[in-house]
What we know:
The chain is of the alpha/beta class. Helix content is 42%, strand content 15%. The chain contains 17 helices and 15 strands. It is globular. 45% of the residues are buried. Pyridoxal-5'-phosphate binds next to helix 6.
Amino acid sequence: MTLADDALRNSGVERLMLGFSNLRETREQRPMVLTGGDGIFVIDEDGRRYLDASASFYCAALGYSNERLVAAAHRQMQAMPFYVSAQQRTVPAVIELAERLAEIAPVNDAHVAFGATGSEANEFALKFMLYRNTWRGQPKRRKMISRLGSYHGGTLTTAGLGGSKSVHDAFALPMQDHLLVSQPDFFNNGQPGETEAAYCDRLIAELEQVIADAGPETIGAFVAEPLSFSAGLVIPPEGYFARVQAVLKQHDILFIDDEVITGYGRTGQMFGAETLGLAPDILCSAKAMSGAYFPISATIISGDIYRDLEAHSDTQGLFAHAGTYAGHPVGAAVALEMLNIVEETDLPGSVRAKAPRFAARVNALADHPLVADVRTIGMAGAIQLRSDGADGAVATGALAGAAKQLAAVTQDLGLIIRMTGQTAMLAPPLIISEAEIDRMFDLFTEALDAVADQLIA
Ligand SMILES: Cc1ncc(COP(=O)(O)O)c(C=O)c1O
């Protein structure tokens, strides 16, 4: 059976369960099957090229044909394809990567534990918080605050951190340790007549109330992305994080900074913490850490936390935590080469240089008849579609299918975007050129116009 076989092409895939897809649809309709890549473009089994404005879940920062990353993987495969980093054994690349990350992460006196995925990085951060608090004689300090609309991973605990009630219910997640507060989303959640400053006051009051209601002595951590991508690139109001961090400090609650997406230059600095002025106790990194060429993640903790973990592990004889592929040598070697490339090419600086062009193209869509709001930072843009149908120019209810239609039309035009509810997210590989930024927005605008022509009378 070859892929050119029409019968195969016209049926779905029977045995494969694809995430964030309708399982029946996958079984009945062949998904997009990608067989190659070239810069910011990917190529499907029919030879069609797509400009990937999603960097494949916001992770392929260097695109799909970086030979240095491939060569680094190959060299490590030849030298030492695998050894587990545990039981007082490891490999040189893993040691070096921990040193390099500790140097650059905006975390005091950093120490590094590796994982394979972003979910693991967050899950381990929470596990370490619990381990520390049992050592400190505070076993009740175990609750986690996260924000509605967020996404922090697919494991039981990290899915509970995610701010989607329908996911909590559908998977019957154990939610007893989870507390949810609002996303700092002024455009969607601000009240009529409310200023951004008053909105920020309201968010801080809500956080304080949630802490007071649960009892500060029961809360271990607050988990947030600097900018929530899953909530549609929410850019917090001025002063939000400074005030959140002050509240957390007051109650001895750890701040876990989920930089699974925002790390490695996406916002124009190496980490979103630097762009937003955050001082995390724990920073979680993944995705672009290896350019997404090999699964690897890191939980980077402060020296204060580390010392408690060390003391606790000493009383127990060992730190009873590991993962077979936590710090895979090939992932570590690729991540080291990624850091070399980031430094040699000043990847965050290149994002800052291209960001004005990117932002100009996002902002130019603000007045489009289908658009409710636009938001942008670094090499990421959100174009939120109107959904109310209140404007006389739009037939009531006609916009219900706009998001799905936009995803389909862009794909037909050779552009891959990520729809998050009503919001189109454009966050391409960071190596995108200015000419490609223009091409990407030309295609996106063409799709937006086509959908508007169909839906707006
Ligand atoms: C902000 C954020 N945190 C964590 C994760 C989980 O990472 P992974 O899918 O590698 O487990 C994701 C995945 O998209 C994410 O967007």
